[in-house]
Design a protein that fits this description.
A hairpin with a 6-residue loop joins strand 12 and strand 13. Strands 15, 16, 17, 25, 26, 29, 31, 32, 34, 35 and 36 form an 11-stranded mixed β-sheet that branches. This protein folds into 3 domains: 41 residues, no CATH class; 83 residues, Macroglobulin (MG2) domain (Immunoglobulin-like); 240 residues, Metal-dependent hydrolases (TIM Barrel). 10% of the residues lie in helices and 34% in strands. The N and C termini lie far apart (70 Å). With 467 residues, it is mainly beta.
């Protein structure tokens, strides 16, 4: 007997695994394959922690809907039926390792919730939920894959993980287009994208990955739900200039990723000399591959690295690009996974938008009102001369910089960056801080900031350009 596919290796990720089994015989009889695949169900381990997730922001005075799940050491949900006690004293029954709860905000303050379980006997804390009047902060993953790419996971499982386990606000599950997609694959992609759209609760974006062209890999997203894919193998779409020409004056937006691989890599560096920043408003600065940020080469390094194609190098070239992060998950787990083909936990995209609709998220990305997160849901506001991250301002002699941070852990430092270099460094702090400073611009300048928690989790916001 042999397996028709690669031998099964134990995986720390719980779920079903299908194997095709073939019988071979020593007397040269024809091989026979089992008529149905062998299905293995990998079970989670015992409960290791509780995960409490709140919306990152809420309208002042509004009640907040939270989610709590039981996780093992590999981030699998452990489907136990038990109970947890919230910091308010409320006892919640767990069904299949999860429960929803609601917290009211009568005092218009930052909400933080803790919970404990009898067996664990320690408190676990939620992310902060911050009252906000102008924009709300939404967190999602614009770079996830399922089995329609060279990845694992049925489409339903990927979307359900984003909603039920990671509690994301938006997601884009994209097939890879380094070969031709058949019509059925693209039809399924469009159908699933529309099926899970529930504006006000969960937003989806149609997209596909355009890759292996020598110009760098990109995910092309659409605001609408019924558009064509543009395979890089088609001569009509085989270069950035060609896809930009097709996408011009459409509702598409493009995001380059793992930009700092070497130019001759099978995943080549992004060619920033031919990038169109009207279509590419933001770039993905880290994922399971590692970091292409370019500030600290020791932080989540790519396995091979080209320092001329990092985010900081692009800014120094004069490109005006904002920042997001993504998971690039190949394990059906948007937002990051304990086991991927590459060695890092994926990232998240944080977006300040008016509401949770496709149009508002799209408008915020166009405005570069975005930042990149590793895993922790750090709430970060930065303005320069009262203009939000991502803004372009007229020339000014002075830059009035204001930064507010609400973190999930103590803050090790906040770095205020000018023209990709550290202008000032502040910290350490508790889990919140407010910083105000004034800088003489000395000509055209751009500013952004980096927030590092004591546990190494990181947030990096889009720049503000002055002049």
């Amino acid at each position: 007997m042999r397996l028709a596919w690669e031998p099964f290796d134990w995986t720390p990720l719980a779920g079903k695994r299908e194997l095709k089994v073939v019988f071979t015989y020593p007397d040269n009889r024809p091989e026979q394959r089992l008529s149905a695949p062998l299905v293995l169900n990998v079970l989670p381990l015992e409960v290791d922690r509780l995960e409490l997730t709140l919306p990152c922001t809420h309208a002042p005075g509004q009640s907040v809907d939270g989610r709590i799940t039981t996780r093992d050491q590999f981030d699998n949900r452990v489907p136990i039926c038990d109970s947890v006690v919230l910091s308010s004293g409320q006892e919640l029954p767990l069904v299949s390792g999860g429960a929803d709860f609601q917290v009211k905000d009568p005092d218009k303050k930052v909400i933080r919730v803790t919970a404990r379980n009898k067996s664990l006997q320690q408190d676990f804390a939620s992310n902060p939920s911050v009252p906000s009047e102008d924009y709300q902060l939404y967190v999602g993953d614009l770079h996830a894959h399922d089995f329609l790419s060279e990845a694992e996971g049925y489409p339903d499982a990927v979307y359900r993980w984003a909603i039920e386990d990671r509690r994301l606000d938006f997601v884009s599950v994209v097939p890879q287009c380094h070969g031709w997609l058949d019509n059925e694959t693209w039809t399924i992609t469009k159908y699933m994208n529309e099926r899970y759209l529930d504006e006000g609760k969960f937003v989806t974006f149609l997209g596909f990955e355009w890759q292996h062209t020598g110009y760098g890999d990109k995910v092309i997203h659409y605001l609408g739900g019924d558009h064509p894919y543009l395979p890089a193998d088609d001569p009509r779409y085989s270069s950035p200039a060609k896809i930009y020409r097709v996408l011009k004056d459409t509702d598409a937006f493009v995001i380059s990723h793992h930009t700092a691989y070497p130019e001759n890599s099978w995943c080549p560096a992004t060619d920033f000399d031919v990038i169109d920043t009207d279509l590419e408003r933001v770039m993905e600065i880290w994922s399971m591959h590692g970091s292409s940020e370019g500030y600290d080469d020791s932080d989540r390094p790519l396995w091979r690295h080209n320092s001329n194609c990092t985010a900081m190098a692009a800014l120094r070239k004069g490109l005006r690009l904002g920042f997001v992060a993504g998971s690039d998950t190949h394990s059906a787990r948007p937002g990051g996974s304990a086991k991927e083909p590459m060695r890092y936990w994926g990232g998240l995209a944080a977006v300040w938008a008016k509401d949770l609709t496709r149009q508002s998220i799209y408008d915020a990305i166009r405005a570069r009102r975005t930042y990149a997160l590793t895993r922790a849901r750090i709430v970060l506001r930065m303005t320069v001369n009262n203009a939000w991250m991502g803004s372009e301002l007229p020339a000014s002699d002075l830059a009035q910089i204001r930064i507010e941070v609400w973190a999930q852990a103590p803050i090790a430092k906040v770095q205020v960056m000018k023209n990709t270099h550290v202008l000032r460094e502040f910290g350490p702090f508790g889990d919140e801080c407010k910083i105000e400073l004034e800088d003489v611009t000395g000509g055209p300048a751009f500013y952004h900031c980096r927030v590092i928690q004591t546990d190494g989790e990181l947030a990096v916001c889009s720049p503000v350009w002055v002049g």
